[in-house]
């Protein structure tokens, strides 16, 4: 039966991380929180608990005013009891939406459930997020301030979702928050890199244009790596022709790594040398030499820039992860937890896949808009479907599809998101849709080795392997 209802979705902040630290203690704390706060307050406001799973609680109300009042009462009570036995270590995010639902044997379904879940994800820890439909009904009827936080788009919703938020301590006249961070990755810890102008060591004056053009192409190619912060050309070229200490360059440009190199030409042959340096110590981390025939300048620039990027990107991943050895998830931020998850993912065995799943979930708990963590978590589900029990495969592929779509909604230029969705579609019986997403991944990053492998595999499924060879 279809009806209009107010839906409240509540979730524990950082649940996966807390379970990793103390599974039994976290389970008891969540149960105490439900029994002491959530269940009594839902009942007191005329609501009905529909579902309780893990750290999540879904409830419905006949009155939208009652639903929002209940959500705020839960958060205020949690805030007042912070540190007490019932609320120990726990914070909640709560989303409330007013929309159509379909009731079926005690359960409820429909788009309104998905909207409430997205609102919960957008809510600040300890706060409440409501949809525009809710605000239109209650805006002037409540005694607490609601602040507009703008619109977000989601792959599983037909249009933008406008939302309003409340959190403890807010005042009616408070200024609206700054616009949401558009960076799809946590920026503070992302590795940063500058490419210095490649030095022309040839006697041919025209070769200077080739050197500058190659440097620009390498900067542009590296910038397609969504997890790298790459200094723009104009800043890097201020060091052209200067013999500067790499450590001083890194300090002036605010980067962690520097790439420099040289180009030599003899007749129709060209040699490009590139090296990756630590901006902190000036130590050489990686170096390579590329010898080619100079037939088509632009093809050559694209090829070598792609090869350098395809080598430097994973090299930086290994270097960044090596710095994390000995650290646990409790003393790392979302970016470093993500890096640790990558390391375990690429072991490709069940034990490490399960570890990487928990780590990516922990990164998402800390940074809900971390697109690349959603994408890699989707990829973990694909691998668990492949290596795990056969009877779980369909569910794993469905989970991977949902996570990959969420990653694309957060950042549609993230190659790893298209990779995960492409593999999920191909393995889920939609090979052509999978191939389209895999081609998107390679359009975004032509150096993406995983993307080339996955595309070749998908083309083999449909007996077209020769297409990946051209």
UniProtKB/TrEMBL annotation:
<dbReference type="InterPro" id="IPR050697">
    <property type="entry name" value="Adenylyl/Guanylyl_Cyclase_3/4"/>
</dbReference>
<protein>
    <submittedName>
        <fullName>Adenylate cyclase</fullName>
    </submittedName>
</protein>
<dbReference type="GO" id="GO:0006171">
    <property type="term" value="P:cAMP biosynthetic process"/>
</dbReference>
<dbReference type="InterPro" id="IPR001054">
    <property type="entry name" value="A/G_cyclase"/>
</dbReference>
<dbReference type="InterPro" id="IPR011990">
    <property type="entry name" value="TPR-like_helical_dom_sf"/>
</dbReference>
<dbReference type="GO" id="GO:0035556">
    <property type="term" value="P:intracellular signal transduction"/>
</dbReference>
<dbReference type="GO" id="GO:0004016">
    <property type="term" value="F:adenylate cyclase activity"/>
</dbReference>
<feature type="domain" description="Guanylate cyclase">
    <location>
        <begin position="6"/>
        <end position="120"/>
    </location>
</feature>
<feature type="region of interest" description="Disordered">
    <location>
        <begin position="165"/>
        <end position="187"/>
    </location>
</feature>
<dbReference type="InterPro" id="IPR029787">
    <property type="entry name" value="Nucleotide_cyclase"/>
</dbReference>
């Amino acid at each position: 039966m279809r009806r209009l209802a107010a839906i409240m979705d509540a979730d524990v902040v950082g649940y996966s991380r807390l379970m990793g630290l103390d599974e039994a203690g976290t389970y008891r704390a969540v149960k105490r929180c439900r029994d002491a706060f959530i269940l009594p307050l839902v009942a007191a406001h005329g609501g009905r608990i529909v579902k309780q799973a893990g750290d999540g609680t879904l409830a419905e109300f006949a009155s939208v005013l009652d639903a929002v009042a209940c959500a705020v009462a839960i958060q205020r009570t949690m805030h007042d009891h912070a540190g007490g036995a019932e609320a120990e270590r726990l914070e909640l995010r709560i989303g409330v939406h007013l929309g159509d639902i379909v009731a079926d044997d005690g359960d409820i379904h429909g788009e309104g459930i998905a909207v409430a879940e997205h609102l919960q994800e957008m809510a600040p820890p300890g706060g409440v997020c409501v949809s525009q439909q809710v605000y239109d009904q209650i805006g002037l009827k409540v005694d607490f301030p609601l602040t507009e936080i703008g619109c977000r788009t989601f792959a599983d919703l037909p249009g933008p979702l406008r939302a309003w938020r409340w959190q403890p301590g807010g005042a009616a006249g408070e200024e609206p928050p700054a616009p949401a961070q558009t960076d799809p990755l946590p920026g503070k810890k992302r590795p940063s890199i500058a490419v210095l102008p490649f030095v022309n060591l040839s006697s041919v004056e025209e070769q200077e244009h080739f050197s500058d053009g190659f440097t620009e192409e390498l900067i542009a190619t590296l910038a397609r790596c969504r997890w790298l912060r790459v200094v723009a050309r104009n800043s890097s070229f201020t060091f052209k022709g200067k013999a500067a200490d790499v450590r001083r360059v890194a300090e002036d440009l605010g980067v962690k790594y520097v790439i420099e190199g040289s180009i030599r030409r003899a007749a129709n042959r060209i040699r490009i040398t590139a090296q990756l340096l630590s901006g902190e110590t000036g130590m050489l981390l990686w170096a390579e030499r590329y010898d080619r025939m100079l037939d088509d300048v632009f093809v050559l620039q694209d090829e070598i820039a792609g090869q350098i990027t395809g080598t430097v990107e994973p090299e930086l991943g290994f270097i960044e992860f090596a710095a994390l050895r000995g650290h646990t998830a409790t003393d790392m931020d979302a970016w470093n937890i993500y890096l640790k998850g990558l390391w375990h993912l690429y072991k490709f065995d069940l034990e490490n896949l399960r570890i990487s799943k928990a780590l990516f979930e922990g990164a998402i708990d800390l940074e809900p808009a971390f697109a690349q963590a959603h994408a890699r978590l989707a990829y973990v589900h694909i691998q668990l479907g492949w290596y795990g029990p056969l009877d779980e495969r369909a569910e794993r592929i469905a989970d991977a599809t949902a996570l990959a779509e969420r990653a694309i909604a957060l950042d549609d230029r993230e190659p790893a998101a298209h990779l995960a969705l492409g593999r999920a579609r191909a393995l889920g019986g939609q090979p052509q849709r999978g191939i389209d997403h895999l081609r998107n991944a390679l359009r975004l990053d032509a150096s993406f080795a995983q993307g080339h492998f996955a595309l070749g595999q998908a083309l083999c499924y449909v007996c077209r392997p020769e297409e990946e060879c051209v």
